[in-house]
Amino acid sequence: MQDEGREVLDVRIDSDAREGLTGTAPASIYRPLHEAEQVTIAPDWRPMDVQPAWRTDFPIDWPQDHYVERREFMKFMVLTSLAFTVGQFWIAAQDWWRRRRQPPAGVRLASLDDVPVGATRAFTYPTEHDPCVLVRTSERTLVAYSQKCTHLSCAVLPQVAEKVIRCPCHEGLFDLESGRPIAGPPRRPLPRIRLDVRGRQIFATGVEERTV
Amino acid sequence: MPKPDYLHFFIDPNRCIGCQACVQACTECDTHRGESMIHLEFVDRAHSVQTVPVVCMHCEQPTCAEVCPADAIKRTGDGVVQSARKPRCIACGNCVMACPFGVPEVYEDRQIMMKCDMCYDRTSVGKKPMCATVCPSQALFFGTREQVEQLRPLSTPVNRFHFGRQAISTRVFIMMPAKQASRRPYVDITAAMSEQPRERAIALTPVSTDPFANVEV
To answer: Model-level pTM?
Structure first.
């Protein structure tokens, strides 16, 4: 049965000459069948150079599918950083436009005589859809804030005795003097309305949007 | 870590006894999550008890991957066609229709296709796939070419298949009678479908002497 010249291979799993868990010889004595990375052959058996481009775009081989070319990576990095740069310029341009806009005209709110110390007045400024509230905290101090809570735009209510502005929706509290959040979910201060007292009349002259 | 180059999967359907041990063992592979990815096929159930274990042949031109619209079936560098990638598979079942060997299965309940991956967690560290470890008749054999040549001197491993005009080479070998393989080193599936088994007369000659005469009971 056996050829005379042929070397008889010991097929026993635990023989000394063999290695590995399955009792096989080291890989180095066998020649690999293909390139390690490119194993798939196109169904028409022609080489990959003459295959349509989509074959290289959607490779079946895992290594090719995961392979990212240096050029592709650089393109991604350059385009992403370009997008970020353009975004910065866009933000700067928006800011410039906002600054250039004319400040809203001064609107007379009330007379000092109508607002005693500790009293509040509701008004709308700059448009009729922006509810605001005016508080006279002392003889010489007037404060006014937008009434929209910076959390979820509920109407906030000043409580002069406690020196806070309270949002009833989620128990947010703002400092009455500065409009800054002191408790609850709001994280940003209320927009402050700039006031001007001319003679005995109180005027609203601008809105101060603040982030901190 | 890839499957070692020198280890191959050899299927010898002649030796299959239909015990289903491979199907059960497949469910116990760590990465198969209790699901068997292979099955046992009856060749001609009305006339024969012959069965064939159907494991993935790991084609060099994987038709399942060719037809996948979601680009979910990938082949690792060592030639093992992996099960569908879970984030990509859309459970369309194209691969099930296309596979010439009938290997992939779509699981509608979890919307994924799962197929035999040659127990990649095991073969990639040099162990045998689960089915090959349990096969009692060695119809599924995992080892070197030298081993299989020694064990099956009358058979030759063949990895080329013809389905009509489609020719496929695979990484898994089918054992073919050496005489036939030397004449035609591929399996022509379409021709084999219309092939009828040869009539064989088995003569049972009664022995004249008692063969157990010398056996002490």
So the answer is: 0.59
**What is the token pair recorded at B68?**
């996948």
Q: What is the mean pLDDT of residues A113-123?
A: 91
Asked if B172 and B53 touch (Cβ cutoff 8 Å), the reply is no
Can you name the residues that pair with A166 across neighbouring β-strands? A157, A173
Task: Find the closest chain A residue to B132 by CA distance.
Answer: A22
Q: With respect to residue A64, please indicate whether it lies within any of the assigned structural domains.
A: no
Q: What is the ipTM of this complex?
A: 0.71
Residues A123 and A45 in one domain: no
- Asked if B77 and A39 come within 8 Å (Cβ–Cβ), the reply is yes
Instruction: Note down the domain range covering A10.
Output: 2-57
Segment B111-146, tens digit of pLDDT: 999 999 999 888 888 889 999 999 999 999 999 988
CB contacts under 8 A, A 21-80 vs B, are 21-22, 24-25, 27, 29-30, 32-34, 36-37, 39-43, 45, 58, 60-63, 65
- Tens of pLDDT along B22-81? 999 999 988 888 889 999 999 888 888 899 999 999 998 899 999 999 999 998 888 899
Annotated active-site residue A66? The verdict is no
Q: What total of structural domains would you count in chain A? A: 2
**Cβ–Cβ under 8 Å, residues B144 and B29:** no
Closest by CA to B8, choosing from B103, B123, B153, is B123
Distance CA A204, CA A64 (A): 66
Helices (H), B16-140: 21-27, 63-67, 94-98, 120-123, 130-134
Candidates A198, A144, A195; CA nearest to A206 is A195
Chain B residues with CB inside 8 Å of A33's CB?
Answer: 5, 79
User: Given CB atoms, is B178 within the 8 Å cutoff of chain A?
Assistant: no
For A123, list phi and psi in degrees, rounded to 5. Answer: -150, 170
> Using a CB-CB distance cutoff of 8 angstroms, which residues of chain B are in contact with residue A41?
60-61, 169
Examine residue A22 and state whether it is found in any structural domain, yes or no: yes
Query: Is B61's CB within 8 Å of A1's CB?
Result: no
Residue indicated by tokens 């012959």: B50
